[in-house]
User: Which sequence fits this backbone?
């Protein structure tokens, strides 16, 4: 498996949707390629941060946050 193929199948891997033989090849590539290990870690973190950005919280908004930014975030949330 090449690094390009790794990227193509990454989402299926993370969702547990790869066939067992493809997952074995994927895991073997991860064992040999530190760049893809870092890439996958960053990819997972990006997904987590994206989910966290749209979680609703009860924390008050800091006074220094511009009103226009608050409106833009609320508008983006309503489109999801």
Assistant:
């Amino acid at each position: 498996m090449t690094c390009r193929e790794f990227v193509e199948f990454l989402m299926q891997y993370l969702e547990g949707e790869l066939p067992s033989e493809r997952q074995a090849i994927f895991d073997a590539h991860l064992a040999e390629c530190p760049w893809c290990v870092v890439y996958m870690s960053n990819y997972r973190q990006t997904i987590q941060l994206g989910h966290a950005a749209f979680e609703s919280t009860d924390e008050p908004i800091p006074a220094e946050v511009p009103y226009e930014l608050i409106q833009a975030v609320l508008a983006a949330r309503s489109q999801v």
Summary: The radius of gyration is 18 Å. Residues 1 and 25 are 7 Å apart (CA to CA). The domain at 3-79 is CATH 1.10.10 (Arc Repressor Mutant, subunit A).
